[in-house]
TrEMBL record:
It comes from Oncorhynchus kisutch. One of its GO terms (biological process) is double-strand break repair via nonhomologous end joining. The keyword Nucleotidyltransferase applies. Its cofactor is Mg(2+). This is DNA-directed DNA/RNA polymerase mu. Its EC number is 2.7.7.7. Gap-filling polymerase involved in repair of DNA double-strand breaks by non-homologous end joining (NHEJ).
């Protein structure tokens, strides 16, 4: 008997919502490979194939030890023929041919880069790719008419693709709390999404807002947004009412048509000045802070440079970040595998390419100095139909003391809070598996609003996640173990 065969006799349940899936696991190389194939399938709008790869990856994430040989996988669920083939290849050769081909393919790189723009989904990205648009710079030059979300996405492209740190999430939380309490005292704010699962970084920050007196939360979002806007905290926002999500203008995200919460997709302007953050009241941001740095938003004109972003990160993380290389290292340290993906997209082949994609359009950029300063990007005319970019030099602006961060706000009535909390904590696959379990194993329908028992033809109430797991006949899985 070979050592390690014991994995095969470990019985692993087949739904991810039946398993504990910690953030850190033992099979990163394998799950990274499968994630790339899942990404590729999803970008090609082959959802079924994407889910198959995600389920296989999630199974590996839940294993108590590293898989060293394919024979250890015998008897395990969720591993389709294709996934098994990829796993075997990686185990034997260290890499999978298909994964390598995918990551180096122009189409994959372009689709990742374009869907990395806030407000751009796979369909739009694919249409642009077919027109020869492969990068955000190509898009910017194309003169395409973009919607408001996409214009903001392009404007803050580099920053929004930098991971949001836990401390940034906490700082945003304080701002959201001030806003919510200013307009509705007694309201409760909960950090949801990846940060609730224990992630140290995320692509955005998600909050769920409710009030113990049912009904008091109605109409809350517009008031919160007005407060934030008046205080200068919002660079972009789109609020959808308590109805079906309007997916056309909104960011790229499959909108469940069961999801009818008041919701706000936004981009926050977060101060990265540690001193200022302590007494961050917002008003300061609109007045004093701008004068302090001698730049920023002047009459709807936005100045953004790679250098400023770097400075912001430096202040925020206390890390020396000067060149593209170091940024990547920094990101790698912070997030591990997200960055791996990021690097594939942004760089193609080399460390320099952190230097914002949008600033790399000028062939002279890198020829003048061995240590090129990223150029300044000036976006003219906030309300213009077309975003026009003017390339200048970075001396014209000092270090900037804020960064752009994606923030999602959701308002839920108190009676639905537990369902909303469970539904918005993720991971996406965990959620999908919960719903699949409910339907196929329990004849129930689960959404972020309610749980419906189809046999008893009634809704099942719950005031905690624990109760929902119990209704579903599942062992309670805490948020930190929902990282499927
Ligand atoms: P991140 O932000 O990349 O670190 O990762 P997450 O896990 O925070 O992912 P995110 O922010 O896209 O979404 C958080 C959770 O919220 C996700 O697991 C599923 C849920 N969610 C996101 N968008 C929707 C939606 O439109 N409807 C519903 N029902 N749930 C959603
Ligand atoms: Mg999130």
């Amino acid at each position: 008997e070979k050592p390690g065969l014991e994995l095969a006799v470990v019985s692993v349940p087949s739904y991810a919502c039946q398993r504990h899936t910690p953030l850190l696991h033992h099979n990163i190389t394998l799950t990274d490979a499968l994630s790339i194939l899942a990404d590729n399938a999803e970008l090609g709008e082959n959802e079924g194939r994407g889910v198959a790869f995600r389920r296989a990856a999630a199974l590996l994430k839940s294993l108590p030890q590293e898989v060293r040989g394919a024979e250890q996988l015998r008897g395990l669920p969720c591993l389709g023929e294709h996934s098994l083939r990829v796993i075997k290849e990686v185990l034997e050769d260290g890499v999978s041919h298909e994964v390598e081909t995918t990551t180096h393919s122009e189409q994959f790189k372009a689709m990742k880069a374009l869907t990395g723009i806030f407000g751009v989904g796979a369909k739009t990205a694919d249409r642009w790719f077919r027109e020869g648009i492969h990068t955000p710079s190509d898009l910017q030059r194309s003169g395409h008419t973009l919607n408001r979300a996409q214009r903001a996405g392009l404007q803050y492209y580099d920053e929004l693709n930098l991971p949001v740190t836990k401390s940034e999430a906490v700082a945003i939380g304080q701002i959201v709390e001030s806003a919510v309490h200013a307009v509705l005292p007694g309201a409760e704010i909960t950090l949801i999404g990846g940060f609730r699962r224990g992630k140290q970084t995320g692509h955005d920050v998600d909050f769920l807002i409710t009030h113990p007196d049912e009904g008091r939360e109605e109409g809350l979002m517009p008031k919160v947004v007005s407060w934030l806007e008046a205080q200068g905290f919002l660079l972009y926002q789109k609020t959808t009412g308590n109805s079906y999500l309007e997916s056309k203008e909104g960011p790229a995200r499959p909108a469940s048509n069961m999801d009818r919460f008041e919701r706000c997709f936004s981009i926050f302007r977060l101060s990265t000045d540690n001193e200022g953050r302590e007494n961050q009241t917002g008003r300061e941001n609109q007045t004093g802070r701008e004068n302090q740095t001698g730049r920023e938003i002047q009459t709807g004109r936005e100045i953004q440079t790679g250098r400023e972003i770097q400075t912001g990160r430096e202040i925020q993380t206390g890390r020396e970040i000067q060149t593209g290389r170091e940024i990547q290292t920094g990101r790698e340290i912070q997030t591990g595998r997200e960055i791996q993906k990021g690097r594939e997209i942004q760089t193609g082949d080399g460390p320099q390419t952190y230097s914002p994609t949008l600033t790399n359009t000028d062939p002279h950029t890198h020829s003048d100095s061995p240590h090129p300063l990223p150029q300044t990007l000036v976006v003219v005319g906030d309300h213009a139909q077309k975003v026009s970019w003017v390339l200048g030099h970075s001396q014209c602006s000092g270090p900037r003391s804020w960064r752009a961060v994606r923030v999602d706000l959701v308002v839920s009535p108190y009676s639905q809070f537990a369902f909303a909390l469970l539904g918005w904590t993720g991971s996406k696959l965990f959620e999908r598996e919960l719903r699949r379990w409910a339907v196929h194993e329990k004849a129930m329908t689960l959404s972020s609003h309610a749980l419906y028992d189809r046999k008893r033809t009634q809704y099942l109430r719950a005031s905690s996640e624990e109760e929902i797991f119990a209704h579903l006949g599942l062992e309670y899985i805490p948020p930190c173990d929902r990282n499927a």
